[in-house]
Amino acid sequence: MTDGAATTTDSHDDVPDDYGTLYVVGIGPGLPAHMTQRAKEVIQTADCVVASNLYQEFLRDDDTLPPEDSDDGPEVVRSSMGQQVELTREAFERVRDGEDVAHVSGGDPNVYGKSDLVFTMAESDDATDVPIEIVPGVTAALGGAAMMGAPLSNDFCTISLSDKWRGWDEIEEKLRAAAISNFVIVLYNCWRNYTRAIDIVREERADDVPVGIFNDAGRGAAGRNLDDETFSITTLGDAKSHDDDVGGMGTSILIGTHETEPWSNDYETYLVTPRGGRDVDDF
C-alpha cells in the first residue's frame, strides 16, 4: 500500500470540484432500524447505490430506498459476490464523473466487509485520486450479543472460519490463542468449519462454558433463515449437536468464558460476562 504521513478528513479539501465521493456504507446486521443516521443519509442522497438483492430489500423496508418500480431516488446497481472487482472499478469511474456512490456492506465494512477491497483496488488500479469514506455500522457480533444480553462486557474477539484466503492452520492458531487468553469468541462464517472450531476450543475450555448461537440478528422475518431471527443457548460440550441452528452466512456462534453465566428474569434467559470481579458498589 502507499506510504504516507497520517492525514485527516481535512485532506478532502484538495478533491477536484467535479468529483464525487465513494462511500462504503455499513448498514448494520439487518433491517434499517439498526442502521446509523449517517448511513441512511448517505444512501438517500447518493447518485448511485450498489447493494445486493437482500440488502435492497432491507433498505426498502423503511423507504431508505424507494420501491423498485419508482423513478425517484438514486440509481440502484445489483451487487453479487462474483462482481465485486468490476463494480468497484465502475464506482471509481462514477466518482470521477461527479457521482456520489454508496457501496453497501452488511454489518460494518471493516468487519469482514468491503472496505479492504476498495482500498486494495484503489492501490492496484491507480485510483488514489478517488475520495473514499467509510461509514461504520453495527456488526453481527454486536447485534447478536444484544439479543443475548451482555455476553461481550469483557474482552472479546471475532474470528472468521472462512478458509478462502488463508489456511486452516492459521485459523486454528488464532482459535487456540483466543481460547487460552480467555477472550469471549464470536465466530463468523460458521457453516464452513464450526465443528472443527468447537473441538479446538474444547481443548482449552470446560464443556460447561455457555455458548450462544444466533441467526439473522436484527433481520426479523426478512433474512434468509427459515425460522426468522433466532438465538439459542447451549454449552461448549453440546454445541456440535446443534447443526439445525447453524444455517449459513447469517449464523454466528458466541463462545463464552468460565466467567460467562446464563441469567434469567421473569421473561427470558440471557448470557452475561461480567467485567471482572466487580460488585454493584464498584460501578
UniProtKB/TrEMBL annotation:
Keywords: Cobalamin biosynthesis, Methyltransferase, S-adenosyl-L-methionine, Transferase. Residues 21-219 form the Tetrapyrrole methylase domain. Pathway: Cofactor biosynthesis; adenosylcobalamin biosynthesis. Residues 64-74 have a biased composition (Acidic residues). InterPro entries: 4pyrrol_Mease (IPR000878), 4pyrrol_Methylase_sf (IPR035996), 4pyrrole_Mease_sub1 (IPR014777), 4pyrrole_Mease_sub2 (IPR014776), Cbl_synth_CobJ/CibH_dom (IPR006363), Precorrin_MeTrfase (IPR051810). It holds the Pfam family TP_methylase. The keyword S-adenosyl-L-methionine applies. Residues 60-79 are annotated as: Disordered. The keyword Methyltransferase applies. This is Cobalt-precorrin-2 C(20)-methyltransferase. It comes from Halogeometricum borinquense.
